[in-house]
Structures are given as C-alpha cells and as structure tokens.
Design goal:
With about 325 residues, the protein is an alpha/beta fold. The protein folds into two domains: about 60 residues, Rubredoxin-like (Alpha-Beta Complex); about 260 residues, Alpha/Beta hydrolase fold, catalytic domain (Rossmann fold, 3-Layer(aba) Sandwich). It is about 35% helix and about 20% strand. The chain contains eleven helices and twelve strands. The strands form two sheets. A seven-stranded mixed beta sheet has the order 6-8-7-9-10-11-12. It has a five-stranded antiparallel beta sheet with strand order 3-1-2-5-4, covered by helices on one side. α2 links the parallel β7 and β8. α2 packs across α10. The two termini are about 40 Å apart. The C terminus is likely disordered.
C-alpha cells in the first residue's frame, strides 16, 4: 500500500510498500493502492522542490499549498525559477495545467492562482471588485508572494490582476515580482476595450462572450447544467473588469514581456503599445492566434518564459549555458 509521509519540518516522502517501522518525526497523511494517486495527491496539495520515485522513503523539500493556489506538477529537473499565473475572466487553474507541465521541463515551478467562485473554490463567493480580489490573493498567498525570486504571468483579466497586485505591493513596500508576463490585455489607461455585459440576459451574455473571445467550448455551451455552474464567476469577473477604475501612479520598474494574438478582437496594437507608459517593456511579441493564442502556442510561449527567466538568475544562466534551461 503506497503511502505519503510528512514531518513538521515540511518534508514529504512517498513509500511504495508498507513500512514496518515509521521513522521518528514522520506521520502518514495519505495512502492509496496506486502509487500514481499518491504522487497526484502530493502535487495537488504541496509545493515540492524535487519529487522522485522509487522504493523506500524519499524525502523532498515541500510546503503545503494554501487554498488560493494550485501546483499542477513538479519540475523534473532542479528548479531555478517560480512563475505565479493569474487566469483570465471565468478561468480556473485547470486551464493552465498543460502550460505548467511544459514549463516544468525547464525547471520552472508554476503556481496557478485559484480565484474564489470556481473549481476547488466554487463554494466561495466571487470577488465583487478588484480590491476584494487583491485582498483575497494576498491573504491566501502571503508567504508565496513574499518569497523571491517569483515572476507573474497574467492573461486578459489576469494581466490586470498581476499588474495591480504589483502596484499594490510597491505601495506596501513588499516584495514585487522579478518579471511580468502580460498577455491578451491592453494597457489600463486605454478606454473602450472592455465588453459591457451587466445589462445582458444570461443567454445574450453567453453568446457575446463566445462570439468575441471564442472561449467557451461547444460541449459546455450545449450543457445547461455546466453553464449554470460557471455563469456566476464568469459574470462576476466581467463586472469586475468593466467597473475597475485605473488610478494613475508612477511607472513600475519591473521588466515586462507582452504577448498577444494577432487575431485578438479584444485588443489593438496601439492599446498594447500603451503599456510602455506603465512599465519597462523588454519584449512585445505577437503570435498567431486569437484571444487564447496560448492554446496553439504552448511550447513557443513556454520557451519565451523560460529564456527570459533563465538569464535573470545565476543558477538559471548556468542551466541555459548547459542546455538544462531550454527545450530542444
């Protein structure tokens, strides 16, 4: 019976057979007849630095994950960078699992923010405004946000959240991200780009979102039960975005990479270029695709992220030179 052991010092071990004598300080926290299920439990509940497999006790450095974040997989090579992902409106962590798995191959630990009102947090009420959402994130992820190095990746609404969280942490004189990846979003000073949906019926709202963003799969559109589950968070997020009021501040000093789809109807080149007024843009890249260009460019975007983060850290630079920090 494979089991997962833990200690108060934040160390984990997977035992692939019954262990007759439990070492001092260790306790069983999970067990299953399937070793892969044990590993899945570890990866979904703990943030691990290196996860091995084999027989016997295999301790790893680990930290229990808070409610507001998900770590879908552990890097298969030593970690040199951490990326915190902020999903799009209505989106949850699972949408970024494929992205995280590719980044793990380059030694990037990907933590995906879980907003209230969806997936594992579906029982929580969605955040009514940006301030409430930022407070929720800071409350749940205080230790993770304080650790360095850490970079932010935000898509669409998530780009706005990552940007506003960075400004908020600067005002509080707290740790800021080392790099920002902002995708699928115009600069906050640009008006008129967001779709006003507050007055629409549910049916008209769904059609408008599906038509503009191509973001709702047909199997979900054709399932009234599923739509009823995702509608509250989706509508709340659109309300949050449209009603957020951007406050002018001095520019951030965080290196930023902009990534957008060439066929994204929600943005314009001028609106994207306006980000240069808010922070130093080191790359402004356009990739083939619509608002969700990441889906068809997973490897390309992962390479861009890995290369940018690789050269920021001494260990990462060494990995790049040795070929560990980049995919072939």
């Amino acid at each position: 019976m494979p089991e997962v052991y833990s200690t108060n010092e934040g160390r984990l071990a997977i035992v692939e057979h019954p262990y007759s004598t439990l070492p001092v300080g260790w306790s069983v926290i999970f067990q299953s007849a399937d070793a892969d299920i044990c590993r899945a439990f570890v990866k979904s509940h703990w943030c691990v630095k290196y996860l091995q497999s084999g027989r016997g006790i295999l301790p790893v450095i680990a930290k229990h994950l808070p409610e507001g974040v998900v770590c879908p997989c552990s890097p298969t090579v030593p970690i040199f960078a951490r990326l915190l992902v902020f999903p799009h409106a209505g989106g949850g962590p699972s949408a970024y699992f494929p992205f995280a798995r590719i980044l793990a191959q380059s030694g990037i630990e990907t933590l995906i923010v879980a907003y209230p009102g969806r997936e594992a947090r579906f029982r929580s009420a969605p955040a009514p405004d940006m301030e409430a959402l930022l407070m929720d994130i800071e409350s749940n992820l205080s230790e993770i946000l304080a650790e360095s190095p850490c970079s932010y990746y935000g898509h669409s609404m998530g780009a706005m959240v990552a940007f506003e969280l960075s400004r908020r942490r600067r005002r509080q004189a707290r740790t800021q991200p080392e790099h920002l990846f902002l995708t699928g979003r115009q600069a906050p000073a640009v008006c008129g780009g967001d779709m006003v949906t507050d007055g629409l019926s549910n049916a008209d709202f769904i059609q408008a979102v599906a038509r503009r963003y191509h973001s709702i799969p047909e199997e979900i559109l054709s399932s009234p039960e599923t739509m009823q589950l995702i509608l509250p968070s989706l509508r709340s997020d659109f309300h949050l975005v449209v009603n957020h009021r951007f406050g002018q501040e001095s520019p951030l000093h965080i290196p930023t990479t902009l990534l957008n789809g060439t066929n994204d109807a929600a943005i314009s080149p001028a609106g994207v270029d306006a980000w240069t007024q808010e922070l130093p843009v080191v790359q402004n890249l356009w990739l083939d695709g619509d608002h969700f260009f990441l889906n068809r460019n997973l490897v390309v975007v992962a390479d861009i992220v890995a290369q940018e983060l690789c050269w920021q850290q001494p260990a990462g630079a060494m990995a790049c030179r040795s070929g560990q920090g980049q995919k072939t």
